[in-house]
Amino acid sequence: MNPFTATIWFESFARRAESLPVRIHDWILGLLPAWPWLHWLVTALLAIVVILTFYGLFFAMITVTERKGLGRFQNRPGPNRTGPCGLLQPFADAIKAICKEDIVPATADKVLHFIAPCATVFFGLLTLAIIPAGPYFTALNLDAGVLYFFAAGAASELAIFMAGWSSHNKYSLISSMRALAQLISFELPLLLISVSVVMAAGTLSLPGIVAGQSSWTLGGIIPQWNILTPWGIFAFIILFIAALAETNRCPFDLPEGESEIIAGHLTEYSGFKYALFFMGEYFGMLALSGLAITLFFGGWNAPCEFLQFIPSYIWFPVKLFMMMCLFIWIRATLLRLRIDQLMRFAWKLLVPLSLVNLVVVAFWMRTGDWAGPLQLVRWAGAFALEFVPFLLIGRHMSKGLGPRKYKYAQ
Amino acid sequence: MNATINYAELVYALRPEIALTLGLLLALGYDMAFGRRMSDCARRGVAVLIGIVTLASAVFQTLHTNVPPVGHAAYWFHGAFVYDTLAHGVRLGVFGLSALTLLLIAGSIPHSALRTPHFKHPAEYVAIQLLATMGFSLMAVSNNLLIAFLGFELASLSLYVMAGFDKTSRASAEASLKYFLFGGMAAAFMLFGFSLIYGMTGTIVLPEIARSLAVQGPSPLLLVALVMVLVGFGYKAAAAPFHQWAPDVYQGAPAPAAALIASASKLAGFAFFARLLFSGLGTVSGDAINFGGPAGWIMVVIIISAASMLLGNIAALAQTNARRLIAYSAIAHAGIMLLGVIAVRAEGAGPLFYYALTYGIATIGVFSVFAAIERTAPCQRISDLAGLWKRSPFLALVLFVCVLSLAGIPPLAGFFGKFYLFAAALYLNGLMSPAGWLAFLAIAMSAVGLYYYLIILKAALVTNATAGASAATEKIRVPLSTVIALATSAALTIALGIWPDVVLGLFK
Amino acid sequence: MSALHLCLIFSTLLFALGLAAALSRSNAILVLLGVELMLNAANINFIAFWRFSPQFASNPHAGVIFAVFSIAVAAAEAAVGLALIIAVYRHYKNVRLQDADQLKG
Amino acid sequence: MTIASHPYAFIALFVAVAAAFPLGLLLVCRLWVWAFQPPKPSPVKNGIYECGLESKGDSWIQFKAHYYLYAILFLIFDVEVLFLLPFAASFNVLPWQALLVMLAFILLLAEGLVWAWNRGHLEWK
Amino acid sequence: MNSIPLLSLIIFTPWVGALLVALHHPRKPNAISRAGAVVFSLSTIIYAIAAIVLPGGFNPDAVGLQLTETHSWIDSLNVRYSLGLDGLSLMLVLLTGIIGPTALVASWRVAPVTRESNLYPVLFLLLQGASLGVFLAQDFFLWFLFWELSLFPAFFLIKMFGANAAKATRAAYQFVIYTMGGSAFMLFGFAALYATTGTLDFTALAQLGADGTLVAKLAEIGGIWPGVVFGGVLLGLAVKVPLFPFHTWLPSAYAEAPAGTSMFLTAVLSKMGVYGFIRILWPIFPAQLSAAAPCLMVLALAGVVLGAFAAMRQRDLKRMIAYSSVNHLSYCLLALFAVARVAGRTTHDAAVSSALSGTILQMFNHGLSAAALFYCIGLLEKRSGGLRGIGDFGGMRAVAPVFAGLCGVAMFSSLGLPGLNGFAGEFLIFRGVFGLAPWFAAAATLGLLVTALFLLTFWQKVFHGPVGENVKGMKDLSCCEIAPLVPAIALMFVLGIVPQVLAALFNPLVAQWTTSISSLP
Question: Which residues on chain A are in Cβ contact (under 8 Å) with D112?
């Protein structure tokens, strides 16, 4: 086998591997009568089944990863009894959840109490449909995909409020109000950052945004991902922080703050409804991670040109997994904030910085034709435009704040 | 996206609005930066000063706009804006009226512990008022349903806030909420009507709408749209039967806000609707000349107008609250101005504009007097005005002039406005037209109106204050800025009555 | 019955519903909701007409632009409305409209 | 290859399945309960959980207005995005004057934010 | 002379005076402000005499408007500042010139107003200027301005200075609302006129009215239209005069006003209505007036007869004189309507000219006599401390012979005793009306009789008989009190003997009217 044929073989392998899902899909359709509506239905159902199984399994694996990871962070083994290395733990948990008694408080608003967990999962799933996981794994390709994502995603706030309110528990209500305040506050930077990416990509379609990042420079080593621009790194950090808050993850998990308000809106839930909340939350996390990948990490694209032989449907889960790990890492590292700190952080830092980011994107896109030394100016300018406001606002916010002085410990 | 968008033209078209924006930013910014260090009085003074300077610069910008000759109009920015004498006049008018009401703020500081409207946040108030003024100005130049709606809502939303600006007052909050709920509903009606018009014609530019409707002719759907638009308009203009908010707002809102709602808002609203109805829906106006002509919006306007005049005048007779009385009289005046809307067909917008402008000036005068009185004693009931002649002859004189102008007594501006407007309405087809009968009704009702205006004057000029209430007899010291507002409105009321050509010259 | 008709019927029903809510409810927030429904009914009209009707060449996007702007206006109205309701609440300790009856005559 | 012929048809189907998914899972639980574990309610078990204390007063309490202030602020900025998105999508083909117009728009909103900041409305109290 | 805007001076000098007096001292009147007010009030008669006497002034032989002043004013409405003087106007200016200062002096000296305030002369001068404006304006718009402006000083004069506050308020409101209501309809009529013809100039409108263009133009837009406009204007004027069913405001207004104001109201303001009939209604709507004349004559006749009867029933002297004013002015209207009725018929030239001359004379005469009577009643009030019932006095002739004499002259002048001025006017009116409408004239004589009856009753009850309780200790008139009466009484005699002095001023005018009436289509 000479290198040339090897390359050919290699390329054809890569192509075949890439188009595997299409071939499976065509094969299944071939088994069916050639009625267009049936083909459409089956195609759609296939897409849905893939989404449900993929993200369902991913959810399961992430829970076990998280538990084990947190265990390691805290110098303990984590779950290790069920299955090999405790890998079957989530399934055991599911069975346990099914078996547990479902307790509904006598004074609760029964209907809303029932709807709330379903709605959490429902809206989580809706957002997942739009995430482009690969050229052949884009279940829903809308012209205004970004809008769809936020329309579906924002509705999950409603579910949390439903849960808190219907429980008829003071802690639940407080938590849901807090959650609402927190979610709407962090929704803004999220939205604004998406807008800046849309500005750069010139389209609202998520596959379109991915397509805009599917090339490489410097001989195919450096991908042209948005994260590798001065505005992109800032934007991603903001988006990630906002995503943490949107999914009630540590350090923004105030709504569930066990030490203050029992478990917030989850207080009155038990059994499988509780599990559904978990599922919904993780679906939300997966969706936001998917969005972050789409917006900043080139979606399904390989990081280097020569790595293209690995099919896109591998790359996407890998990136997703790494994002989730990042979530877990943050959770293990940081402490929970106070509500005032949280709100201040959103309104006084993230929102202004995302507005600044819009301007920087405009600058960056308009200076695309600068070359040579001007290129340097472009980078420096963009960084300066991001950094200076950040420093100014940061200094202003921390004015008068020093390390806390402990009276009794001195 | 249309690459041929001419932004220079946009900037040219909106120079006064840009000036207002910069002014409001300046007012807010200055207050944020230095406000805390200043005394209340200085803070208020600076805010008002910035507001006045801003309005002056807006007037300056307006004056430096080329006005096409009468009967012609310039279209800017792909037909989104229109500029003609009416737009020019209304812009100048609203800036002037707005400046007059601004002057009231500085004067409305309470002297005693009495609960009177006061402004803890003058810069915000000025900024919101400038926003409202911007809305008025946009309404004046809009040639397109969208710009019109935006201007309308910008103005309305600002006015809601201004009506409720006195946070210490229960009445103010209640008034603004009522104003808001009614106004919101009106906006919804109007928007629905706009959407139907858009659906029928496929365009939102007024002349294109007119062209398209001329081809289509009237249809039931169009009638629905017209009624909806007019319902929205009726609310805005406080015309019966959509007037319920007006008395409450006039009574509860702080005096400067009420003055603005009664003056500039009316001027801009009526100018805008005259333009909408004639330039956009003129081809489906129906017949104001003969009874039994084709149906159209004119009949609806006539009915609303008649209802407003009857209800306004008759309800005003029963009032014991001076502000409510002025409100009901405003409803009656709205009826007359609706007649002016019809008369636009005969004589152009001149009579309507003159009437609305002079009405606004006189109303500001009245509210200035109320505001000045409120510095020492509450000024709600008509009896609160008692002994005004002794407490401040100047206030009594201004009240005298302004109320008589509202009543339509020569040689004041209100008289000339009425006369000109009635002549224009009769010009359509004399008494034999619906408009003619409406004019007849208007005359009869002005005679009724005279009675309640005289009640106010009687209280102010003749009746002695009841003994015992020390606040109600002490002399009123009127602050300088209010004096300016009072003197200006009274002087304008007289001067425009004697030399109406100053205003009408624009339209000839 | 065409899609346009369906949209129009839907929007009309929505408008009627909003109007009914705005007129019959005594809670200010519910009235506000009714008003918002009415505004959104108009938005649906705009979009429906834009989508299903022949357009004037001069501005093919008028309907959708109008809808975008009126959504913004509706939001601004909600913002102002909520603020005013809070202001009333501060005085009356509730938002029932029948209690706000200080001004009359 | 796009899967659906019309994206909205797919959304409709997906909505149905996404709604059925949690409901189906809950149905499984219900069946389990029906078959093996009949519920045993008791007043204590079905009471509100407040760390073992008895709940006092109504839980549906009224919240302070500050929550609404955030809602209002959010509303304003959320709507801002409504205008930013079409602008952003066509950013590459717009002339530079359009940028200035948009910049003015953003600055006006930012000014609102600064105002709220300055007035202390962004402080959670 | 032509370079001096004499007519503007006539109108505005009292206003300038009002301003100066107001500025001089806002509250309390003093000698200077009083003297100033009288001087400014006197300016009218001085100007009027100057206009007659000076070369280049008023030419009695010319017909048409003289000393005209025309300036553009409101171009958009084609409204001009237009003043003009003819015989009719001059008569009324003279009347105002005589009565104005008299009434002003009377207000302080003789029947002092209840509230001592500088506002009184200010308002009074304003009223005087506005009245003069009404008589001189030749453009409807300007005319209407003065017409309405005259209302407000009058309102406050009645309201603030009336003896009985409650009654005065009521009377003042009644007065203003009636008049304004009427004016509103007049305004409406003129708005319509403007809408159809595009002009508001009296001369131009009269031109249009004379050749029938006006009716044609109005009829173009609807059959009832000319009638409605006519009706509107008629209503406005009828309230002011007042014509019979619209007179109800008058007695209380005259009765409640302070004496000086009553004098001016009855002498000058009531003439504004008659003047309007002659200046506006008649030339502009000759055909309509002619058609409506029979009806109107009935109303005027009712005014004559019922006014007299009503006066007879009054116990309050002021109300009595007020009703007699209704009666007297109805004579004028009767004559005018009778003339209008025969418009276009050529047979009655002598009767027409006599009726018209009589009307003008009667206006002047009634002004003198009624003012004098109000003055006398004012004196009675002053002496008796506010009493003015017909039965409150008695035997005054014995106590105050001078007063009785002067009052008697005024009374007999009002009654129409030959040799005094009242006779000439009434005689001419009756002569004219007998020629034009004999039955009406015959019926009107009833009014004459009743007038004689109630005036004689007045004479008898107040001045004859036993000296009443209230009359005891009354003093006769002082010089100061006599002075205001002197010009009026003197004129009564002069005009009673040589009415031609006045008639010469308006004879050419009447002659021209007479010919133009017979030449009407």
Answer: none
